[in-house]
Amino acid sequence: MRHSFIISLCLAGTVALSACQKSGEQQVEEALVDLNVIDESNLNDVMLNAADPNEAVAHFVRTSSAHPDRIDLKRGLAQSLTRAGKHDDALTAWEATVEHPEAISEDQVYLAQAQIRTNHWDEAEETLNQVPPTHETYLRYRLEAMVADSNQDWDRADTFYETAAGLTTSPGAVYNNWGYSQLTRGNPRDAERLFQRALTFDRNLFTTKNNLVLARASQRNYELPVVPMTQTERAMLLHTIALSAIKQGDLSIGRAMLEEAIQTHPQHFEAAVRSLRALDNNVTN
Fold first, then answer.
1. Alpha helix (H) residue ranges in the chain
2. How many CA atoms lie less than 13 Å away from 12 in the CB half-sphere?
3. Which of 63, 105, 178, 260 sits at 20 to 30 Å (Cα–Cα) from 154?
């Protein structure tokens, strides 16, 4: 009887040990799964922030195909396509992201941005109208301003530009857009003021420097503004001034500016040479 009791005890111990081993194996597997998720999450972040955009696209195409229900992978694919400049594909990817049941308001904002980049302005306006008013972000109001601009709703555009500028510590791009809006409305002085303000936040924005020159030239002010610029930038801005002067009938000023642009550029300035040649041919004819 004692013998039977010992056998029973041993069997019970074996079962208990087996159960412990099984529980331990499950814990290891679960830990590995968690670890894989963490590693994958880190990889996704690396792909979004540091990798070549096309490599990131390939990564998210592959991983989202393996896990089609995960919104983070859909979002990552859409962001990567945007970075790669594949705006039509990015639009499709953002549409798929927004349709996901776990989509958030920011996804709608990025969809609107993709719609604007593909020239779907009416759709962008409709998308932004669906974003809750409590979702107040820099990007949302910058896009709202651009849509209002496209509708020539100037008061609304100005309000949105001002709001967007107040929601970021780097509003240079906002002031540049706002300035260009004023320029297209025929308000070059207001545009000049906004372009100068943009450069106080980011003096490396060449597009803003070029826009500033256009605003000044439209007022027949053909002097270069006092802003930081490289030698190449100086030559390009002189070229812009020259073309503006010629367009307004100030041919002698335009010609002088073209010659100075050619002399200033550290390399051969083909665009300015062609402009000068065209000007001379037109004057001769």
1. 2-49, 53-66, 71-83, 87-99, 105-117, 121-129, 138-150, 154-166, 172-184, 188-201, 206-217, 231-247, 251-264, 270-284
2. 6
3. 105
Question: Which residues in the chain land under pLDDT 50?
Answer: 1-22, 28-38
Write out pLDDT tens, residues 49-90.
Answer: 766 889 989 988 998 888 899 999 999 999 999 999 999 999
Decide: 223 and 260 in contact? Cβ < 8 Å: no
Dist. CA 274–CA 173, nearest whole Å: 31
**Phi, psi (rounded to 5 degrees) for 266:** -70, -15
Q: What pLDDT is recorded for position 104? A: 97
Task: Give the per-residue pLDDT at 36.
Answer: 46
Q: Residue ranges per domain, the chain?
A: 229-285
DSSP tag of 224: P
> What is the helix (H) or strand (E) element at residue 185, kind and residue range?
none
Q: What's the whole-model pTM score?
A: 0.79
| Biggest CA pair distance of the chain | 126
Note the residue count of the chain: 285
Angle between helical axes of 206-217 and 172-184 (0-180°, round to 10): 30
Spatial CB neighbours of 188, under 8 Å, sequence gap ≥ 6: 182, 215, 216, 218, 219
**Residue 245 pLDDT:** 96
- The amino acid present at 254, given as its one-letter code, is G
What is residue 31's predicted lDDT score, i.e. its pLDDT? 42
Q: What is the rounded distance in angstroms from the CA atom of residue 86 to the CA atom of residue 93?
A: 11
